[in-house]
Write a structure and sequence with these properties.
alpha/beta, seven-stranded parallel β-sheet, 28 strands, 28% helix
Length: 618
């Protein structure tokens, strides 16, 4: 009797024994199997086989779905790497590396290679960072390396953090290398289309696969090059367990399979900058010449605290004067804000009641056009109210500002100007604008708008105050804003002293990164230490807190290589109806987390509490 050791897509860190049909032939490991688990049908993955089992009453596999393994040896190995590094079960790792259609049992046709495909010589792992202010500039460095990989019979994966940019890359590459051998994959495709592309890749029918975050798991059998453009893009971090990051996964895979990894962007992440500094990552400057930075003006809004009038509380006299002079000179102006909507919060001036989301610890944002109050965390919408829900008075005050209010105020201040707004709801550009009010979406356009004057209103106000990456994010934002202007960048902020460092004057990113590295080293933060957060969440606040304390007591002082900190309420504390407590872990080697947590975390289970692990939180 032959038994399958099956990895199930459950947070249970073990394999389950099931008996296989007597007539099964061929390679078994790597196939999918339908099994009965706790009275329900689950699709699992055959990770191993055995001729004996210690289980007295073994269930039979209901159905072996595949006639040949869909998971080849590199994918089997990759799943184990993901399981070990990101502290998840092997079944959860298999589910992560496969597209939803395959997880749901869609048929996959794996072709037998009757004749060996010519394979290029293994190159060994190598990592480089390509620095360039635009995709077109970075492509100058990418394309020769892509061509070299294809010439040596190697395949290429090209990652983009968002769908629109990915489509743009796909269009560029299919023109040069031909459409039949090039494909684009992303998770919003239909199940059949995504599965079809995965099947093509698995059967060596593609030379280049472009994709978003999950394409890092592409099953191309002879991968020679993996490119991650905009490597510090937010879209590369998975929000669900396991919380993998495409950049880290690409490096882990490259080290395992022996191929080249190229990271790219306007500037490296601080971790990549540190790797460049330590010679573990090469640096390729794709720009032909060094760009001259614009003039930077700091408008200190804290100096105008006495001007808290209805109209001028968020546009300082300095900024208003610059806009006026620019318009008179026939120049264009871009006004950037991190905030959407009209007002950022509403409260009653009589009883003090604040309008918060009942499911999240977040204030509701008033959107004037929709006449709705919207939670920025969960997206729930409520009808705008004119009376206080608590005391029924009409003393509700809408405070703060967003893109809608800024647009409204600029229309009043400059009634003759052609003004448009660019945000998620307004993406159609009229090229004849004079003032453009834009949110973050401006950076995701295929063609960036340019203006002689760019002003950022409190660019630091939306940054999480407990996030140690604050400075790095602000540096990146200011640099991206500088690319939009041809003359002057105005930063209106109440934190003027932060921007008055001499390194900001000419946007010397390397010197800013060096300052940040000194601070991180002093505080033992990445890249000098690796972090992991254990998250305990529950609908019941006390249960979540009790569970977090039990986990902390179980883990504290168990291993000298792991520093464990007492649990704290998360920021935000409540999201989507759940209360969150976080336990922070520090270690020099991130691989130590997996061994440590496998040994101790399983002992601390609590009813009604979900516990997840986030390695390398962003």
């Amino acid at each position: 009797m032959l038994y399958a050791k099956i990895a199930l897509p459950l947070p249970i860190d073990r394999l389950f024994d099931y008996s296989l049909p007597a007539d099964i032939t061929g390679e078994i490991i790597g196939r999918r199997a339908l099994v009965n688990f706790a009275g329900r049908g689950l699709i699992g993955y055959i990770a191993d086989t055995a001729e004996k089992t210690s289980i007295p009453k073994v269930k039979s596999v209901l159905k072996v779905i595949d006639s040949a393994p869909i998971l080849n040896q590199p994918l089997l190995k990759l799943a184990r790497i993901i399981s070990d590094y990101y502290c998840c079960s092997l079944g959860e790792a298999f589910n992560t590396i496969l597209p939803p259609g395959i997880r749901k049992g869609l048929a996959v046709n794996i072709l037998e290679q009757k004749t060996a495909i010519p394979r290029g010589q293994a190159q060994g792992f190598k990592m480089d960072f390509v620095r360039g202010d635009s995709l077109e500039i970075r492509m100058r460095a990418y394309l020769p390396r892509i061509s070299r990989a294809i010439e040596t019979k190697k395949s290429v994966v090209f990652l983009s953090p968002e769908i629109n940019a990915g489509k743009r890359i796909h269009n560029l590459l299919k023109i040069k290398y031909g459409e039949p051998k090039t494909a684009f994959t992303y998770r919003k495709q239909s199940l059949k289309e995504e599965t079809r592309i995965w099947e093509q890749a698995r059967n060596s029918q593609l030379d280049i696969l472009i994709g978003t975050r999950t394409a890092v798991f592409a099953p191309l059998p002879d991968l020679g090059l993996l490119i991650i453009d905009e490597e510090n893009g937010y879209g590369y971090k998975e929000e669900q367990m396991p919380h993998y990051h495409s950049r880290s996964t690409a490096i882990l895979r490259g080290e395992s399979e022996g191929f080249q990894v190229i990271l790219g962007g306007q500037n490296p992440s601080l971790e990549t900058y540190y790797a460049i500094k330590n010679k573990s990552c090469g640096l390729i400057n794709a720009s032909a010449e060094e760009r001259r930075p614009p003039r930077i003006t700091i408008a200190d809004s804290s100096r105008y605290g006495s001007l808290k009038t209805k109209s001028r509380m968020f546009i300082s006299p300095v900024l208003e004067d610059r806009i006026s002079k620019a318009l008179k000179a026939g120049k264009k102006i871009i006004i950037f804000t991190n905030h959407k909507g009209f007002a950022r919060y509403a409260s009653c001036r009589k009883c003090g009641w604040a309008l918060n989301c009942e499911y999240c610890s977040s204030r509701l944002i008033f959107h004037f056009e929709e006449k709705k109050l919207i939670c920025r965390l969960c997206g729930r919408k409520k009808e705008a109210v004119s009376l206080c829900p608590k005391c029924n008075s009409n003393y509700l005050k809408f405070s703060g500002y967003g893109a809608e209010k800024i647009t409204s105020q600029l229309n009043l201040s400059f009634p003759g100007a052609k003004l448009i707004r660019l945000d998620k709801e307004h993406q159609n550009q009229d090229e004849n604008w004079q003032i453009l009010v834009a949110t973050e979406i401006i950076f995701h356009l295929n063609t960036l708008p340019r203006a002689e004057v760019v002003a950022a209103i409190d660019p630091d106000s939306a940054i999480n105050i407990v996030d140690f990456r604050n400075n790095e994010k602000i540096y990146s934002l200011v640099y991206r804003l500088s690319l939009l202007t041809t003359e002057e960048l105005i930063i209106q902020t109440s934190l003027a002293e932060f921007y008055q460092r001499k390194e900001f004057a000419n946007l010397n990113m390397d010197k800013l990164f060096e300052l940040e590295l000194k601070e991180r080293k002093a505080l033992a933060l990445p890249p000098y230490r690796h972090l992991t957060i254990i998250k305990a969440r529950s609908k019941d606040k006390e249960r979540a807190e009790d569970a977090a304390m039990r986990i902390y007591r179980e883990l504290a002082e168990k291993d000298k290589k792991i520093e464990v900190f007492e649990p704290l309420a998360a920021v935000p504390f409540k999201a989507r109806g759940n209360f969150y407590f976080h336990i922070l872990l520090k270690a020099r080697n991130p691989r130590d987390f997996g061994k440590f947590l496998r040994k101790y975390l399983q002992r601390s289970k609590s009813s009604g509490v979900t516990v997840t692990v986030d390695v390398d939180p962003q």
